[in-house]
Amino acid sequence: MNAKNWPIVKVTLPADLKGVKPGEVPEHLLRDVKPHGKLHWRAADAYHAMRDKAFADGIKPFKPTSAGDTYRTLAMQTTAFLQRYQKSPLAGASTRTWEGVKWYKKSPTMASLAAPGTSQHNLGIAVDIWSASGPRFEWMLKNALDFGFSWEVVPEEPWHLRYTAGDNVPEAVQAWLDRKKVV
Question: How confident is the model at residue 136 (pLDDT cuts 50, 70, 90)?
Fold first, then answer.
Protein backbone atom coordinates (compact mmCIF):
# COMPACT_ATOMS: atom_id res chain seq x y z
CA MET A 1 0.00 0.00 0.00
CA ASN A 2 1.23 3.47 -0.79
CA ALA A 3 2.25 5.54 2.24
CA LYS A 4 -0.20 8.24 1.13
CA ASN A 5 -2.98 5.81 2.04
CA TRP A 6 -1.70 4.93 5.51
CA PRO A 7 -4.09 6.01 8.24
CA ILE A 8 -2.57 9.10 9.87
CA VAL A 9 -4.08 10.29 13.15
CA LYS A 10 -2.90 13.27 15.18
CA VAL A 11 -1.29 12.29 18.48
CA THR A 12 -3.10 13.14 21.69
CA LEU A 13 -0.73 12.66 24.61
CA PRO A 14 -1.87 10.99 27.82
CA ALA A 15 -2.36 13.68 30.49
CA ASP A 16 0.45 12.29 32.66
CA LEU A 17 2.97 13.03 29.88
CA LYS A 18 2.13 16.72 29.74
CA GLY A 19 5.20 18.64 30.89
CA VAL A 20 7.43 15.53 30.80
CA LYS A 21 10.73 16.17 29.03
CA PRO A 22 11.15 13.76 26.08
CA GLY A 23 13.66 11.06 26.92
CA GLU A 24 13.15 11.57 30.66
CA VAL A 25 9.84 9.76 31.21
CA PRO A 26 9.57 8.73 34.88
CA GLU A 27 9.92 4.98 35.42
CA HIS A 28 6.48 4.75 37.08
CA LEU A 29 4.86 5.77 33.76
CA LEU A 30 6.59 2.98 31.80
CA ARG A 31 5.66 -0.69 31.49
CA ASP A 32 7.53 -3.63 30.03
CA VAL A 33 6.29 -4.87 26.67
CA LYS A 34 6.69 -8.38 25.28
CA PRO A 35 9.18 -9.63 24.38
CA HIS A 36 11.37 -6.60 25.20
CA GLY A 37 11.36 -2.87 25.73
CA LYS A 38 9.11 -0.40 27.55
CA LEU A 39 6.27 1.91 26.61
CA HIS A 40 4.14 4.48 28.42
CA TRP A 41 1.57 2.44 30.35
CA ARG A 42 -1.35 3.45 28.11
CA ALA A 43 0.63 2.58 24.97
CA ALA A 44 1.79 -0.68 26.60
CA ASP A 45 -1.82 -1.75 27.26
CA ALA A 46 -2.76 -0.90 23.68
CA TYR A 47 0.30 -2.71 22.30
CA HIS A 48 -0.40 -5.89 24.30
CA ALA A 49 -4.06 -5.86 23.25
CA MET A 50 -3.00 -5.42 19.61
CA ARG A 51 -0.33 -8.14 19.94
CA ASP A 52 -2.85 -10.62 21.37
CA LYS A 53 -5.23 -9.90 18.46
CA ALA A 54 -2.39 -10.32 15.95
CA PHE A 55 -1.51 -13.69 17.50
CA ALA A 56 -5.18 -14.76 17.45
CA ASP A 57 -5.28 -13.85 13.75
CA GLY A 58 -2.15 -15.93 13.04
CA ILE A 59 0.29 -13.01 12.78
CA LYS A 60 3.33 -14.38 14.61
CA PRO A 61 5.68 -13.12 15.70
CA PHE A 62 4.40 -9.65 16.47
CA LYS A 63 7.02 -7.77 18.42
CA PRO A 64 9.21 -4.69 18.59
CA THR A 65 12.33 -4.95 16.43
CA SER A 66 14.42 -4.45 19.59
CA ALA A 67 14.23 -2.96 23.09
CA GLY A 68 15.65 0.25 21.57
CA ASP A 69 12.64 0.49 19.26
CA THR A 70 10.24 1.22 22.08
CA TYR A 71 10.95 3.89 24.75
CA ARG A 72 14.31 5.60 24.30
CA THR A 73 15.99 7.77 26.86
CA LEU A 74 17.57 10.99 25.63
CA ALA A 75 21.00 9.33 25.90
CA MET A 76 19.87 6.38 23.76
CA GLN A 77 18.40 8.70 21.12
CA THR A 78 21.54 10.83 21.09
CA THR A 79 23.84 7.82 20.68
CA ALA A 80 21.78 6.41 17.80
CA PHE A 81 21.51 9.84 16.17
CA LEU A 82 25.28 10.39 16.24
CA GLN A 83 25.80 6.94 14.70
CA ARG A 84 23.60 7.87 11.74
CA TYR A 85 24.15 11.59 11.21
CA GLN A 86 27.13 13.91 10.74
CA LYS A 87 27.62 17.66 10.55
CA SER A 88 29.69 17.50 7.37
CA PRO A 89 27.55 18.18 4.29
CA LEU A 90 26.83 15.14 2.15
CA ALA A 91 25.30 15.67 -1.30
CA GLY A 92 21.79 14.23 -1.56
CA ALA A 93 21.66 13.12 2.07
CA SER A 94 18.50 13.58 4.08
CA THR A 95 18.91 16.03 6.93
CA ARG A 96 17.76 16.75 10.46
CA THR A 97 18.19 19.89 12.50
CA TRP A 98 19.33 19.45 16.07
CA GLU A 99 20.28 22.23 18.45
CA GLY A 100 20.12 24.69 15.55
CA VAL A 101 22.62 22.73 13.42
CA LYS A 102 21.89 20.87 10.18
CA TRP A 103 22.96 17.20 10.31
CA TYR A 104 23.34 14.89 7.28
CA LYS A 105 22.48 11.18 7.21
CA LYS A 106 25.70 9.24 6.70
CA SER A 107 24.17 6.60 4.42
CA PRO A 108 20.90 6.30 2.50
CA THR A 109 20.66 2.66 3.62
CA MET A 110 20.38 3.66 7.28
CA ALA A 111 16.92 4.21 8.70
CA SER A 112 16.16 7.82 9.48
CA LEU A 113 16.04 8.90 13.09
CA ALA A 114 14.50 11.91 14.78
CA ALA A 115 16.75 14.42 16.46
CA PRO A 116 17.19 13.77 20.20
CA GLY A 117 14.25 15.05 22.20
CA THR A 118 11.88 15.12 19.22
CA SER A 119 11.11 11.42 18.77
CA GLN A 120 7.87 9.91 19.96
CA HIS A 121 10.05 7.03 21.16
CA ASN A 122 11.38 9.57 23.69
CA LEU A 123 7.87 9.76 25.18
CA GLY A 124 7.28 6.01 25.21
CA ILE A 125 4.39 6.18 22.74
CA ALA A 126 6.14 4.77 19.64
CA VAL A 127 7.01 1.19 18.78
CA ASP A 128 8.78 -0.16 15.70
CA ILE A 129 7.22 -3.50 14.72
CA TRP A 130 9.58 -6.23 13.54
CA SER A 131 9.36 -7.15 9.86
CA ALA A 132 6.39 -4.91 9.07
CA SER A 133 5.82 -6.12 5.53
CA GLY A 134 3.57 -8.52 3.66
CA PRO A 135 0.76 -10.08 5.71
CA ARG A 136 1.97 -8.45 8.96
CA PHE A 137 1.83 -4.97 7.43
CA GLU A 138 -1.54 -5.65 5.81
CA TRP A 139 -2.82 -6.78 9.21
CA MET A 140 -1.46 -3.60 10.81
CA LEU A 141 -3.22 -1.46 8.20
CA LYS A 142 -6.53 -3.16 8.99
CA ASN A 143 -6.19 -3.20 12.77
CA ALA A 144 -3.77 -0.61 14.22
CA LEU A 145 -6.36 2.18 14.46
CA ASP A 146 -8.66 -0.05 16.54
CA PHE A 147 -5.96 -0.13 19.22
CA GLY A 148 -5.14 3.57 19.14
CA PHE A 149 -2.06 3.31 16.90
CA SER A 150 -1.35 5.20 13.71
CA TRP A 151 1.51 6.09 11.40
CA GLU A 152 3.42 9.27 10.79
CA VAL A 153 4.03 10.56 7.30
CA VAL A 154 7.32 8.67 7.00
CA PRO A 155 7.12 6.50 3.88
CA GLU A 156 10.38 4.73 4.62
CA GLU A 157 9.16 3.53 8.03
CA PRO A 158 6.09 1.28 7.67
CA TRP A 159 7.10 -0.41 10.94
CA HIS A 160 6.84 2.77 13.04
CA LEU A 161 3.57 3.02 14.96
CA ARG A 162 2.70 5.59 17.58
CA TYR A 163 -0.03 5.59 20.18
CA THR A 164 -2.42 8.45 19.42
CA ALA A 165 -5.41 7.95 21.71
CA GLY A 166 -4.18 9.77 24.80
CA ASP A 167 -6.38 8.91 27.78
CA ASN A 168 -9.31 7.80 25.58
CA VAL A 169 -8.94 4.04 25.81
CA PRO A 170 -9.93 2.51 22.45
CA GLU A 171 -12.82 0.03 22.59
CA ALA A 172 -10.61 -2.90 21.50
CA VAL A 173 -8.13 -2.11 24.28
CA GLN A 174 -10.89 -1.75 26.89
CA ALA A 175 -12.32 -5.15 25.85
CA TRP A 176 -8.84 -6.67 26.26
CA LEU A 177 -8.43 -5.04 29.70
CA ASP A 178 -11.88 -6.32 30.75
CA ARG A 179 -10.94 -9.88 29.68
CA LYS A 180 -7.72 -9.63 31.70
CA LYS A 181 -9.71 -8.70 34.84
CA VAL A 182 -11.89 -11.79 34.47
CA VAL A 183 -8.98 -14.20 34.13
Answer: very high
